[in-house]
Amino acid sequence: MLSSFCLKREKVEQLLLEPTINHAIVCDDLKKFYPGRDGNPGKFAVKELFLAVPRGECFGMLGPNGAGKTSFISMMIGLTKPTSGAAYVQGLDIRSHMDAIYTSMGVCPQHDLLWESLTGREHLLFYGRLKNLKGSALTQAVEESLKNLNLFHGGVADKKAGKYSGGMKRRLSVAISLIGDPKVVYMDEPSTGLDPASRKCLWNVIRLAKRDRAIILT
Ligand SMILES: Nc1ncnc2c1ncn2[C@@H]1O[C@H](COP(=O)(O)OP(=O)(O)O)[C@@H](O)[C@H]1O
Ligand SMILES: [Mg+2]
Question: Name one GO cellular component term (predicted).
């Protein structure tokens, strides 16, 4: 269970008195409770989570399997609602302003969500368009992204994702999460299944990417 994560209640409550826009993310006593089923007791996956992540920072969330990392990300990206507590993304409340939050958010889910029959390039073009990129800005963003994640050479970009190795799929998922200049990016175990070289390439990309955004990494 993710709990009392990195800040004291008093510190977050102090922060909330100031405009929350200074922080990419503020969580105030965030909780997620899953009710029991078939006679099994319910459980908290996230409890008393207090967190403040400034812009330009990469926040790493560690915890064993079942600690509540994915549950936390699901709430922050609007897939599930918190049981109680509040969270703000660039000052916007996730309980009431998810629509606005979506426009500047990037997500690399724990399990790759890719179309087997689309190439890496086609994925990035698709997601780039969703982020309102067009024309030469779109082409340029896609090329850059393919190069940064080492999916450019050897015709990899134009191979169908269904033919990709696990590591290539993971790198494509990371590329998708960063396209279109999102201000807050969530990466749920992005390095799973990557070999050491790919891992190094991933950390470089994250280091460059975090300059003007916040990255939450598990
Ligand atoms: N939809 C759900 N319904 C009930 N329990 C869930 C659900 N999703 C996750 N859990 C439980 O919540 C706990 C945290 O899971 P999760 O957030 O996936 O952790 P992590 O990503 O850190 O491995 C686990 O015990 C898991 O079984
Ligand atoms: Mg998880």
Answer: membrane
